[in-house]
Design a protein that fits this description.
alpha/beta; Aspartate Aminotransferase, domain 2; Aspartate Aminotransferase, domain 1; globular; binds pyridoxal-5'-phosphate
Length: 372
């Protein structure tokens, strides 16, 4: 058997930048300032500019970013927030942790993200916001969704945890709605050496509220206008993220090239559906997700060939013990079907063309065997 193709090897991005990372950590150690210092300030301004947005506030994790935009928008008990059925549980938990109720809608079956029509069908007098999740790096149609939200007086919040680099009509900033939550979890397109996140917005009020909330609601010492939390990004993470941000465009371009290579091979391969990307959408290719019948069998066959895979996600939030009591929920047939069929193939900037071809050869072989 040829060499295995891991789903992801997080030593690779670190090795590619080892000198810069060592230097970034040394800067912080030598300065002796570990929180809310110059590395965070610089990262915020560099990431805002990379995103084409006015403001960025670094926070402790993607989940903190989600929670803080919900709080900054004043959403709380008695309010409803429309969420996709198929998302990481964090999107729903950000809503429930504010005391509000997540109201799920199915995504579009082809793009696997929610649409304005889907969101509209779930609006009630209690709806305060729509949470768009650019799942796998595929942007939702925020033009349609912002028109809907503006017309109904709703906030448009974005879970951008998986979509660093996504574009709508060639613009990164069109992907942000009223405010977007990024995650720098180590596996993400821009990954820290631990937890990290950011809120990106053009709205100075949301930015100001997030900055207070992340640090105990404290404006100055002994001046606490809001009940905040501790959700600060550490200087070491900010310093390392600054070094990685320099390479992010190059890394994302490599992801896009691999996605094109995969898509070319999927054309005409029976028994598998690849991602569908409309012309206006710039996919960030955080994950490359196909759909197959007998997903678990195909996964085992790929594993036997040394191909690492993952499933995002096998259990949708409405079926978890933690959240099933938040219902009743409407039927979510597309979400349920996706949870049985989705399979994430290796997708990262360090995958070679030869490895990508090996993944596709193994997939074709695994699918061929299922029928026979
Ligand atoms: C769609 C989505 N939302 C939210 C999160 C939470 O981010 P974090 O792990 O940084 O808290 C993640 C992933 O980890 C995610 O994939």
């Amino acid at each position: 058997m040829s060499a295995p193709v891991p789903f992801l090897d997080l030593r690779q991005p670190t090795a590619a930048l080892r000198g810069q990372i060592d230097g970034a950590i040394a800067r912080v150690l030598d300065r002796g300032l570990y929180l809310l210092g110059p590395e965070l300030e610089a990262f915020e301004s560099e990431f805002a500019s990379w995103c084409g947005a006015r403001h960025c506030a670094g926070v402790a994790s993607g989940f903190s970013a989600l929670q803080l935009i919900v709080r900054a928008c004043g959403i709380g008990p008695g309010d409803e927030v429309i969420v996709p059925g198929n998302t990481h549980i964090a999107t729903w938990l950000a809503v429930t942790s504010a005391g509000a109720r997540p109201v799920p809608v199915d995504p579009d079956a082809a793009t696997r993200v929610i649409t304005a029509a889907g969101a509209e069908s779930a609006i009630t007098p209690r709806t305060r916001a729509v949470f768009a999740v650019h799942l796998y790096g595929m942007p939702c149609d925020l033009k349609g969704l912002s028109e809907l939200c503006r017309g109904r007086g709703l906030r448009l919040l974005v879970d951008a945890a998986q979509s660093a680099g996504a574009e709508i009509d060639g613009s990164r900033n069109l992907c942000h709605g009223d405010a977007a939550a990024y995650s720098f979890y180590p596996t993400k397109n821009l990954g820290a050496l631990g937890d990290g996140g950011a809120v990106v917005t053009d709205d100075p009020e949301i930015d100001g509220a997030v900055r207070l909330l992340r640090n105990y609601g404290m404006r100055h010492f002994a001046d606490h206008p809001m009940r905040g939390v501790n959700a600060r990004m550490e200087e070491i993470h900010a310093a390392v993220l600054r070094e990685k941000l320099v390479l992010l465009d190059e890394w994302n371009a490599r992801r896009a090239a691999l996605a094109r290579r995969y898509m070319g091979r999927l054309e005409g391969m029976p028994g598998v559906a690849g991602p569908e990307v409309p012309g206006w959408a710039g996919h960030a290719w955080h994950l490359f997700v196909v759909e197959v019948e007998d997903r678990d069998l195909i996964r085992r066959r790929l594993d036997a060939e040394g191909i690492g895979t993952a499933v995002h996600y096998p259990l949708p939030p409405h079926r978890t013990a933690a959240l099933e009591t938040v219902g009743p929920f409407p039927p979510l047939p597309i979400t349920d079907r996706l949870s049985r069929r989705v399979l994430s193939l290796p997708m990262n900037p360090f995958l070679s063309d030869a490895q990508a071809d090996r993944v596709m050869d193994a997939l074709a072989g695994a699918l061929g065997k299922v029928g026979g």
